[in-house]
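2024-03-11 09:14:02 DEBUG pipeline.ingest accepted 1 chain
2024-03-11 09:14:02 DEBUG pipeline.ingest length=238
2024-03-11 09:14:03 DEBUG pipeline.predict start
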Amino acid sequence: MVDRPQLDILLCAPRGFCAGVDRAIQIVELALEKYGAPVYVRHAIVHNKYVVDGLRDKGAIFVEELSEIPDTGAPVVFSAHGVPKSVPADAKTRNMFFLDATCPLVSKVHVEAQRHFAEGHEIVLIGHKGHPEVVGTMGQLPVGAISLIETVADAQVFMPRDPNTLAFVTQTTLSVDDTREIVAALKARFPAINGPHKEDICYATTNRQEAIKAVAPEVDAMIVVGSPNSSNSLRLVE
């Protein structure tokens, strides 16, 4: 028998799902328990294949658009990432019974964007193009009201209509370090830019990134358990 060197495994803390993800999963599970299958879910309720497959086995049906759902009295759940305003409006037009599982911290960003718009600000959203949360946030306001910035390079070439009436919000699942650099670039060019009263990046995203940084110098290799389509998991890998 070959002697193997001792293997020590360190578990980062905190870890696991955030409160918003737990809440969204519970909404689908409670809907299945109360109303029975099927329960339709617009987009993956959270970006985790294990969770989605488990809910599918219980009777959840995942779709990307409401147009895929037949006329039925079955509940429809909106994912934790949030949806554009057009989605619940469409659901109401079709008399659908829908449940909104949008993370409260994402809803906070929606409210901030709407407040800035009402105050006459041009809005910059720091985030990743095509991510459901970004699509949902940009869909809270008329087309063109929000400009997306993904990188420091984007921030350095962005040309607002009026630099004195500019505000920014961010996706909740970004790299804290990358976002800090983008915000710094925007503030260097536009000192009058308005930001959120409290950072938009989710506290669970922030403290898990801090946990990774604390443990990384102590280990030879690190494994992130997550899904490849999860923004949070990818940020931890980075």
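2024-03-11 09:14:41 DEBUG pipeline.report The first helix runs from residue 19 to 35.
2024-03-11 09:14:41 DEBUG pipeline.predict end
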